[in-house]
Amino acid sequence: MKTMNKSICYFALGHACVDWAQSAIPALLPYFIANYGLSYQEAASLVFANVLLSSVLQPIFGYYSDKVSLPWFIPLGPVFCGLSITMIGFASSYWTMFAAATICGLGSALFHPEAALLAGRIAKTRKGQAMSIFSVGGNAGFAIGPIVAGFCAYTLGIRSLALFGVVNAAAAIAIAREIPEAIRAALPASRPPETKDLPGRPKAAPRNDWPSFGRLSVAIFARSLGFTLSNTFIPIFWVSVLAATPRQGTMALSLLFALGALFTYCGGLVADRAGFVPVLRGAFLLMVPAMFFLVNSENVLSASLLLVPVAIALFLPYSPVVVLGQKYLGKNAGFASGVTLGLSTTIGGIFAPVAGWVADRWGLAAALQILWIAGIAGCAAAFTLKEPKG
Q1: In whole angstroms, how far apart are CA 385 and each of 31, 121, 127, 273, 380?
Q2: Nearest partner of 118 among 365, 281, 341, judged by Cα
Q3: Domains of the chain, earliest start first
Q4: How many percent of the chain have pLDDT more than 90?
């Protein structure tokens, strides 16, 4: 258990380093709009660049991690993400920023499937708790990233974003040193069991439940819209709709993810006791009214208070979604990790430019109505799922 906690804490550190870099990009959008004259659509396209490769490659890397272990991807991911934010700080053109955001997506795709798969194997029977610890690292990164990126851009100067590259490189070295011990801890769980549950009855082999995984993917897609569009547009919403300052917009995003870290951890603990599907259903039931009132709020105070139920709806099901995916696809847990983690945090970004296009023409508040509509779709999908056995 001590080895499990130690290794998973290192993976959580890597998760934080990947996601603080990813969260820096949306936090910098008001700066780019003000200083580089970008439109909403151009700014949102940077988020699209970030998620494009990540969305495509995470399932592919996850599929191959089921066949060939690639644990060195785990420290490599933070290195790519740190490098990308450093490049943005020194970019001289929009397309350089676009390329840098794409590299960040590549780093995310390298890290998430292999790290989640190895964390799940180390955890053995306490998957909800282990995945919560792992996921809290990511949400802590999302909370810290906007603050650091905003401080770098508005106080130290945009080139100080090189801090992300330095920190991520140091963390990658520490994680690389932990990998051999993590592999040893995971080895017994990664081998097919040779024992029998009952005399004369071999233990059932893992199987894939593709219909359930397909329905889960609908719920993941709905949550991803809420997650990614909130991540992309909350700082801009605070500035352009609520008449707040850019710093207040950055702090709102950090508050959302700070709350997210807490509720992510709670989600795993609750799911271990109450079941993974009930947590998913409850979160989507809350997402619909929370998002509706947020995108139709008219002052900073009410919007800030609404970040609490929004955080519960978006982050409480984060760990349960990953574990459900691994359980539904028992024979391809790595692929499931790639899809669930990839879709959970990136697929909504593909629609960010579309939302930006709508915002340029009819206003940001109108574009963000999709958030509570997505909640309805996710809720419908969640109530078709059954708790997996085993």
Answers
A1: 42, 24, 19, 18, 10
A2: 341
A3: 2-190+207-382 (1.20.1250.20)
A4: 42
Give residue-wise pLDDT tens across range 41-58: 888 888 888 877 777 777
Beta carbons of 190 and 312 less than 8 angstroms apart: no
Q: Where are the alpha helices (DSSP H) in the chain?
A: 2-36, 40-67, 73-89, 94-123, 127-151, 162-190, 210-240, 246-274, 276-295, 300-315, 318-328, 333-345, 352-362, 364-367, 370-382
Answer for the pair 59, 342: CB distance below 8 angstroms, yes or no.
Answer: yes
Residue 329 pairs with which residues in a beta bridge? 208
Asked if residues 302 and 252 have their Cβ atoms less than 8 Å apart, the reply is no
CB-hemisphere CA count at 13 Å for 386? Answer: 7
Q: How many CA atoms lie within 13 A of 84 on its CB side?
A: 32
Give residue for tokens 């109530």: 383
**Alpha-carbon dihedral 368, 374, 379, 385, rounded to 10 degrees:** -150
What type of residue is 368? Answer: L
SS3 state at 197:
strand
- H or E element in which residue 198 lies: strand 196-198
User: pLDDT: is 388 or 216 the higher one?
Assistant: 216
- Cα–Cα distance measured from residue 231 to residue 212, given in angstroms and rounded to the nearest whole number: 28
**Distance in angstroms (rounded) separating the CA atoms of residues 264 and 139:** 8
Residues 6+ apart with CB under 8 A from 318: 135, 139, 260, 264, 267, 344
User: Closest Cα to residue 388, out of 319, 297, 326, 312?
Assistant: 326
Give the C-alpha separation, 203 to 208, whole Å: 16
Q: Are strands 201-202 and 196-198 parallel, antiparallel or unpaired?
A: antiparallel
Judged by average pLDDT, the poorest of 248-257, 278-287, 295-304 is 248-257
Cα 254 from Cα 136, distance rounded (Å)? 14
User: Tokens for 66?
Assistant: 């089921």
Pick from 121, 125, 84: nearest CA to 105? 84
Q: How far is CA 211 from the centre of its chain?
A: 24
- In sequence order, the 6+-apart residues with CB closer than 8 A to the CB of 288 are 372, 375, 376, 379
**Cβ of 227: how many Cβ atoms within 10 Å?**
26
In this structure, what token pair is assigned to residue 182? 């993590």
- Which tokens belong to 287? 């997402």
The one-letter amino acid code at 364 reads L
